[in-house]
What does this fold into?
Amino acid sequence: MRISLLTVPVETNYMDFLPEVRAETDILVPSTRSEGQLPVIPKIAIVSLIKWMERHGYTRDQYDYYDVDMLLPSDKELLDYFKSYNPTIIGLSAVVSTCYAQVKRISRLLRQACPDAWIVLGGSLTASSNLILRKTEVDICVVGDGEIAWVDFLDYVKARGRKKDFNALGNITGLAFLDDAGELRFTGYGKQIPAELNPFPDYDILKAGLRTRPQEFANYFRPGLGSTHFLTDPRSLEPHRRPMLAQLWSSKGCVARCTFCQRSTKGYRVLGVDSLDDHLKMLAKRFNVGYIHILDENFSSDREYAYELARTMKRHDMLWMASGVRVSSVDYDDIKFYKEHGCVSLKFGVESGSQKIMDVMEKKFTVERVFQTLKHCADLDVYSPLAVMVGMPGETCETAAETGRFLGRIAHMQGVDPQWLGLSCFYALPLTGTPLYVYGQQAGVIGKTPEKEEDYLLSVSGSGASKINYVNLNGANVRDVVWWDWLVKLEAQRTFFDLVKKTPLGEPGHMQRVLVSDREREIVGRALTLRKILDSVKNCNLRVVKAKIFYWVEDVLMERVVVPSRLVASLPRWLIYPLFKNLVYVNFLVQGYALRAFGKSFSLWKKWPAVEPVREAQKVHAREVQRVNVKLNIQRSLRRVVRERTREHPPASQTEANQDILSIGL
Ligand code: SF4
It folds into this structure.
C-alpha cells in the first residue's frame, strides 16, 4: 500500500504568475512564497498525521509527502508525480475553506493520474462535505481531528482495498461519505489524540515534502529583526541574540466559539512543556533561532501551562510573541510575568468597539475588558497590534463609528497617532462551518444546493477578509457598506485628536518610534514611483500599476490625505462625512465599471439578494444565562439566531440533516 499526503494551496491563480517566478526558483533561493515579515506557517496537520501513522505501524517507505502549498506545481508536474508514485490512497490537507478551487483542480488531476486511488480530504473545508463529495473527485472526507480517523481509514483500505463497505465505514468516527443511496453519511467529529501527543513542527518531515526544491525550506524561518513585533522591544537588539524567527503552536483549539470563526477542533488542549523544552533546544542549535512566534488560537487560557512555557522560553533565551490571545485570558500580573520572561507582543482578537457586534460574534467579553487589557500591555511596553472587523449582521454606521471611537481611545492610550498604527479593518467573510455561513444560507445569499454552494465557494476561493470580497449578509445599503472602514478610521483619528487636546502625549518611547518609522517605510515602499512604472513596462507586467490606479482613491487619497488630516477632523461630521461617503461610493461605481471592462469580478460588486436586518433570538437556554456575564446579551449571538431559524425549517432528508450539523461547525 502506498500513501500520499499533500497540502492544498489557496491561491486560485498561481498558474498565472508561476512561469516567470519558477524560471528563477529552479536555480536559486528566492521563493514563490512570500508571507511578509513572518515565516511560512509549518504544516502541522501533516506532521501530526505522519507521526500518528508511524505510531501505528506505517513506515517511511509506505508514504510520501508532497508540499503542494509551498511548491505550487503545474498540472504537468502533479500528473507526472502521481503517475510515477501511483499511490493507493491520497490524503489532501485543506486547512482553510477558501481553497475549494484548488481541491477541485488537484483532485481532478489525481483522478486522471491514478483512477483507482482513494482520494481523501481533511481540514476545515470538510464542513462542506456534501458539496465536496458530489462536485469533486474526493471519495471520503475526514471531519474534525484527523489523526485517528485517517489511520482507521488506512487500516480499512489495507483490509478491503478499493471496496466500499458502508457498514465498516460507518464504524469509523470522523468520516463523511455518500452511501449506496447517495445520501450523505456523517459518523461524527474525529476523536482527539492525547493532548501531549500533539507535536511541535518536525522540520525533517517538512523538508521531505519539498522534494526537488529543498531551498524552499528557508521559508520556515525569517530574521527576527525583520518583524515589527520584535523590533518594538529593545531586547531584540541585544548583540548576543540568535537571529532567526520560527513559529510553533503551544496549544490546540479555543475556549470560545465566535460565530464567524472556523474551528477545526472541540475544546482546548495544551502541548507538553517537556517537548517544548527539547524543541526550543533543537531550534536554537540547528537553526540559530532566537525569536518565537506562538501561533495558538488561544494562548494563555491555561495559565499554569502558559507560565511554565514562559519560563522555558526564558531558559532558552528566546524572545517571543503570541498572536491569538483572548483579553479574558490575561490580567496585569500575567502580562508582567510574560514580559519578564521574554514576551514582546500579544495580539488580541479585538474585532469591534461595539458591544452589540461583540455579542453577535459571541466574543463573551466586554469592550471595556478589551480596553483594560490593552492598557495593561501599553503600561508594560508589550506591543498589541490592532485589527477590527466590520460587516457582521447587525453592523450599521453607528456601530462602525463606535468601533472607530474605541480605536481612537486605544491609540491615545498607547501613545501613537492612529495613522501610524496601520489599523487593519477587515470585512466579515462567511466561511463554511460557521454560524455566519449558515446565516448566509438561511438568508438566501449562499445557496444550499451543491451547485449553488459551489458557485459561492469558487467565488471566495483564494480570497481574504478584505472589503472587495465582502458578501453582503447584513442587508445594509452598499453606500454604507463601502463607507464603514473609512468611518472607523475617521472616527478613530477624530477621537484621538480630541483626546490629545485634553491630555497631550508625552515623549515617544522606543515602541512608538519603531511603529512610526515602520509605517513610514511601508508607505514609501507602497507608493507608485516612476521607477516602478518603468519596470512594469519593461517587464510587460502592468498588474502592479493597474492595481495602484484601481485603489488610488482609497489607498492614497483617503488613507494618506483625508484620514490623518487635522482639518478634516476639525470640521463638523454633518458637513464632511456625506462628502467623503459619496466620494467613496462614486469610486466604488467607477471601480465596478473598470472591473466589468477587464472581465473581472469581486464579491463586493455582486448583486446579493436583499437581506432583512438581523433580529435577536427569542429564547435563551437556562444554562447559557448562568454561564454568560450579565452584561453580555447571548440573545444577540448569531448562533442563537441561526438555531432558531433551523428549528423552524427542519431538514427534509438525511443528507440535509448531516450537512446542517457540518455547516454550523464545532
Ligand atoms: S475568533 Fe479567536 S477567540 Fe474566537 S473562537 Fe476563533 S480563535 Fe477563539
Q: What stands out?
A: Residues 573-597 form the longest helix (25 residues). The longest strand covers residues 319-325.
